[in-house]
Amino acid sequence: MSDLQAPAKLLVWVMGIVLSLGAVGSLGTATLRMAEAALEAQQHDQMSWGKFSRQLWGPHAQKVSAP
User: Would you say the pTM of this structure is higher than 0.85?
Assistant: First the structure.
């Protein structure tokens, strides 16, 4: 083993932990922003994904022929 291999491995581990904790922190913030956006969309009667899918694939969907 090289004399610098152990400190290099330690630095890689520390950087990995720091980056992982940073990703978890930003993931929480992103989740909160998505929840706020969904709440605002629900209050302003924007179409939900389920309603859109039912209109798209429902029995009254328009048939499109190939050119």
Answer: no
pLDDT in tens, 35-58: 898 888 778 877 778 888 888 888
Q: Within its chain, how far is the Cα of 24 from the centroid?
A: 12
> Which region, left, alpha or beta, applies to residue 45 given φ > 0 means left and ψ of -120 to 50 means alpha?
left
Tell me which of 19 and 47 has the higher pLDDT.
19
Do the Cβ atoms of 55 and 61 come closer than 8 Å? Answer: yes
Please name which of 5, 8, 28 lies closest in space to residue 16, comparing C-alpha atoms.
8
- Return the domain boundaries, the chain: 20-45
For the chain, state the CA radius of gyration. Answer: 25
Element housing 27 (H / E): helix 5-43
